[in-house]
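Take a look at this chain, tokens included, and explain the fold to me:
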Amino acid sequence: MKIERVELKLLKMPLKAPFQTSFGTTTDKEMIVVKVYGEGRVGYGESVAMSQPIYNEETNSTVWVMLEDFLIPKVLGKEINHPDEITEMFSFMRRNNMAKAALECAVWDLYSKAQGIALWQAIGGERGEIQVGVSIGIESTIEALLQKVEGFLQEGYKKIKVKIKPGWDIEPIRAIRESFGYDIPLMADANSAYTLDDIEVLKELDQFKLMMIEQPLAHDDIVDHAQLQKQLTTPVCLDESIHSLEDARKAIEIGSCRIINIKIGRVGGLTEAKKIHDYCKVKNIPVWCGGMLEAGIGRATNIAIASLSNFSIPGDTSASDRYWQKDIIEPEVTLWKPGIVTVPTTPGIGFEVNDDIVDKFVVKEREYNSEISGSSVN
């Protein structure tokens, strides 16, 4: 298939409620929607970068520049037989994985539509439904946290992830266990908020029999995590540290973790995510799909990757109305039964993108043909 045209749209969408982690509070989510045209079809991708470089080094501003100046020119007008080719085409660029993933996922959507199959089938998925969990930010009080946990348990979510940071860790987790018992699947996500100086606090979490502690130490570390894992009975899960198959291989070899969170944007796209999945399966390391406050296009892509066989832990792909008053896809992502999302069977990502809703939130857009053509700012 030939890539004939690419469009970029920068959106700014308000969240239903502020979402707080150890590195800040988000009230609006910026994202870049990528549209790739070819053979009378259009494929969609979504950048998961944030407006500030607080999760990793990328922002939507850097993603836009990398797409416009380097990545789109690599694919525009080119014949592509299979989306796996994109990884090699983009190999000249170091990192900038969220920029790469936004365009690569759009090509995967276009490819699967051209093949007349669903995206999850195109990447080798095996499940028609997936179990999903929910991520809870840092709340103002323990009482507010417990109310949220209770509500999500009533909705049937299969995993409760709670954000923690120094000073908001032992007591909130203890309160959840005392209120709801040890049978609920519970994990803590630290977003790199701790160091080895905090090891005694992290060891205290062992008593609560958590599924895992996600990324407790530095965002670029695997060495200290290996030392920490040796002293914990709770599995360490790596998130921010894993950008590639090579990162995953090294982390597993030195014992940095027992679980890996695969985020498509963080690792540079679906092709690399599949490679990490396959390697982890061979090494008996379970994986799951984390969330980045995605709108519907990114959420749909997460559903597809989570259908692969080694995604054995419920991911963060909760229903659309968890974050949005109105999502940009139709139908919206919903729970068809408690804690379960169906994997769509229509070609591509399996959802229709509502361009009217998209355009409502556009703050910047540009179109690229064989030569860069007009731009507009709203």
User: Anything to note?
Assistant: Residues 167 and 201 are 10 Å apart (CA to CA).
